[in-house]
Design brief:
Helices cover 79% and strands 0% of the residues. It is mainly α.
């Protein structure tokens, strides 16, 4: 009885710890969703199972990757980072449980809500991002940190794409959402990647000044993607293709200035540089789809499985260590996870381009995806559910 009691107390403590900071519960939930959604989608599309989905199969898959998986990562990162930026108390406890419950309810309603009213399913799913923006926006407004408002603008545009997607079920809005997700990468990745890289170079006794950031170039590349999103939604195909080339060029120049090859000995850094490199690749493939009739699912998977998912895995691996008071040293197997997620993206894109046959391509990329997030789940669940070693809150 004592052993059972002790075990129950430990489980309760672990659950309380998960809701002690936004990154803990959302990063863990995001990982579990990643491990469920892809194989469920493969089984659904091959006829192995038939869930009572509230959206047509392909649209469900796209929504869950864009507004389930990605939104959890955004909530975990942004609501944690904003507390640090603004020096405000973190969202935790009952408030965090309530926010997470909205996210979870959205996943369950879409997966099993075929017979439920559309207004109920859509209202719950469309509520999550505004709640995240409200939490972050309140802190940013009171701290008068206008620099952070740009993130909220892009998040607002991402949410508008979600509104169009669930109400009209048109691929155009999922394309716009992918562009806004890459725009978010452009902002956040543009802040943390060069900063972390120059700091690491300094620690290694190397010259940090080789990492160059040009604010005007940052803003121009972001603006080009916002304009590209608008052009896509309006159906301006040729203009969108030209804008995609411009945006890809600007992002490539930005990345060249960050000198990613100088950090090749540090996995927590090269994963960031390599992941953001998928952004210009995706934009170039988009230009090919618009101007030369290349397969459209090549650029969407370069953006989703490549840029977004790879960067998420790299960021959450670092944030989960830093914000739990642990040294920035990757747990065993995580380098393999980083390699696996990039290989999964590359194989999926090559499959879309018919370089690799469909069945082996889909199977291999799915397996590598599961390996990547499976390793993260095994190595980081204990970290996310345990108190900080230094005894501090968080």
């Amino acid at each position: 009885m004592k052993a059972i009691s002790t075990s129950g107390a430990m489980e309760a403590a672990g659950i309380r710890q998960l809701f002690s900071y936004p990154f803990r519960i959302f990063f863990l939930s995001m990982t579990i969703l990643a491990l469920l959604v892809i194989p469920v989608w493969v089984m659904q599309v091959t006829g192995a199972i038939s869930l009572p989905l509230a959206l047509p199969g392909l649209f469900w898959h796209q929504h869950e990757m864009l507004f389930g998986f990605l939104s959890a990562a955004i909530a975990g990162f942004l609501l944690t980072a904003v507390c640090v930026w603004t020096q405000t108390p973190r969202t935790h406890g009952v408030r965090l449980v309530a926010l997470w419950s909205v996210w979870l309810a959205g996943r369950l309603l879409l997966a099993f809500g075929a017979d439920l009213p559309d207004w109920l399913v859509h209202t719950v799913n469309l509520a999550f991002l505004p709640l995240v923006m409200l939490d972050a926006g309140w802190r940013i407004w009171h701290a008068r940190q206008r620099r952070q408002l740009l993130i909220l603008v892009v998040l607002g545009l991402l949410w508008l794409m979600q509104v169009g997607f669930v109400l009209k079920l048109e691929m155009t809005y999922s394309y716009g959402a992918l562009i806004m997700a890459m725009a978010l990468i452009s902002i956040i990745g543009g802040r943390i990647t060069p900063a972390f890289s120059s700091g690491w170079l300094r620690q290694q006794g190397l010259d940090p000044s080789v990492v160059r950031v040009v604010p005007a170039l940052d803003l121009t590349s972001l603006a080009s993607m916002i304009v590209l999103m608008v052009a896509l939604v309006l159906g301006w195909q040729t203009v969108s293709g030209i804008l995609a080339i411009v945006a890809a060029t600007l992002m490539t120049v930005r990345l060249a200035g960050w000198k990613g090859w100088t950090t090749r000995r540090e996995p927590l850094l090269w994963i960031l540089h390599l992941s953001i490199l998928w952004v210009p690749v995706a934009l170039a493939l988009l230009a090919g789809a618009l101007l030369a009739d290349w397969p459209s699912n090549a650029w969407t998977h370069a953006a989703g499985a490549g840029a977004i998912s790879c960067l998420i895995l790299g960021v959450v691996a670092r944030v989960s260590l830093g914000h739990t008071g642990r040294p920035l040293v990757l747990p065993g197997g995580m380098v393999l996870a980083f390699v696996a997620i990039h290989l999964a993206a590359a194989i999926r894109v090559l499959t879309a381009l018919a370089v690799i046959p469909w069945h082996p391509g889909i199977g291999t990329s799915t397996l590598l995806w599961l390996v990547a997030f499976g390793i993260f789940l095994v190595r980081y669940t204990g970290i996310l559910a345990s108190p900080r070693p230094d005894g501090k809150e968080g």
